[in-house]
Write a structure and sequence with these properties.
178 residues, 7 strands
Length: 178
């Protein structure tokens, strides 16, 4: 089923999503990869604030290429989500509601998704140039020294994703990759 959603996400709407749904996201999402997740984890360990409000928000596991002239951002394809698995349960417990990446997740992440009524979306790998056309604004908001792995705030319009793990724990990869 095709769904259109606003970000930040509405928890009730997230809970209505089913694995396999096609979703088009419009609104604000954030990017963060390995190095940014490590920094956020270290800040939380020290009792410090992290640079983004996680509540009902989405983190897109992506590090863009440099923008060409006249473009907001370069290629913006997803990175492998499992690299963030050691950080994801904690962030979900702190209010993160959506994650976008590619590839399988560990059982601990699925448990945290269910526990928090969250969702894992997949974006199509190899389609970064096409995905970048859905990004209308991009701004580095934290960890600028990390370059492509800095945290960015993105304004997206009809950003296409597929629900892979829904809030009930149904996992599309497990169903189709037997």
């Amino acid at each position: 089923m095709d769904r259109y959603m606003q970000a930040p996400l509405d928890k009730t709407e997230v809970k209505s999503l089913e694995a396999g749904d096609y979703v088009y996201i419009t609104g604000t999402i954030y990017t963060a990869r390995d190095a940014a997740h490590l920094r956020m984890s270290e800040a939380l360990d020290k009792g410090e604030e992290i640079p983004i409000d996680l509540n009902n928000n989405i983190i897109y596991y992506m590090g863009p290429t440099p923008a060409r002239e006249g473009r907001v951002i370069g290629s913006a394809g997803p990175t492998t989500a499992s690299r963030m698995d050691k950080y994801a349960p904690r962030l979900l417990d702190l209010g993160l509601t959506g994650m976008i990446g590619k590839g399988k997740r560990k059982p601990e992440v699925t448990e945290a998704i269910v526990r928090n009524g969250a969702v894992f979306f997949a974006a199509v790998g190899g389609a970064g140039a096409l995905l970048s056309k859905c990004i209308k604004k991009a701004e580095v908001i934290a960890y600028e020294d990390l370059g492509t792995e800095a945290i960015r705030k993105l304004e997206v319009e009809n950003f296409p994703v597929i629900v892979v793990i829904d809030s009930k724990g149904r996992n599309l990869y497990n169903e189709v990759c037997k």
